[in-house]
Amino acid sequence: MRTVLIIAGLATMFAAGCGVNKQYVADEIAASETRTGTELQTVKGQTDANAAEVQRLQELSRQLGEKADLALNKASGFENYQVIWSGEINFAFDSYEIDGIAASILDEAGAKMEQVPHALLEIEGHTDRTGSSGYNLLLGEKRANSAKRYLADKFGVSLYRMFINSFGEEKPVALPDERNAASKNRRVRLSVWGLVQ
Question: Which domains are present in the chain?
Answer without folding.
Answer: 75-195 (3.30.1330.60)
